[in-house]
Amino acid sequence: MPPKVKTSRDDIITAALELIRKEGEQGLNARAIATALGCSTQPIYFNFDSMDTLKGEVRKQAEGIYEAFVQKETEKGKYSDYEAKQIAYIRFANKEKHLFKLLFLCDHDSPEESAEALAENARVIREETGISPTDAFYFHLEMQSCVHGIATMLATNQLSWDGKIVSKLLSDVQQGLLTKYGDGEGIQ
């Protein structure tokens, strides 16, 4: 009798991530993962207490993929750190539609994390523009509303990607916000 092939925890996470990339979160279940791995569901439940635990691990992997988008955009040096993050968010929504939905079109369990992210973005805006903390807070809320709207439209196929148009939209919104809140010179 040939030895049994062991299915590792990482194999399961990778298979689950690929299922979400192809079919969305609704396609993720133990049977589909087992089929993708060519095994029974037993290794899945041996390695994970529940599907929710597995989904949490998949979410961490998806967050890592998103962070790689942000890092790549930042390293290009074409935009300020703040702008690069906004462009990366939109690119991620366009290229990884199902992962975007998993991470950003869902209920959030931790409003504290959202508040921390908002504070961090406002800090970066203050550093890059010199505008007041209150203005930086509102600048980010308004800018992120626009960016999230564009990203959502891309992820849900309501808009097709045209980098030039998206870039112009973001530039126009940013200039308007800087005129409203700052000196109108743009983020440096």
List keywords for this structure.
single chain, 188 residues, mainly alpha, Arc Repressor Mutant, subunit A, 2 domains, 0% strand
What is the topological layout?
Blueprint: H1 9-23, H2 30-37, H3 42-47, H4 51-76, H5 81-95, H6 97-104, H7 111-129, H8 133-155, H9 163-181
Account of the protein in words:
With 188 residues, this protein is an all-alpha fold. It has 2 domains: 1-64, Arc Repressor Mutant, subunit A, CATH 1.10.10; 79-188, no CATH class. The protein contains 9 helices and no strands. Helix 1 crosses helix 4 (51-76) and helix 1 (9-23) packs across helix 6 (97-104). The longest helix has 26 residues, at 51-76. The termini are far apart. Residues 184-188 have low confidence and may be disordered.
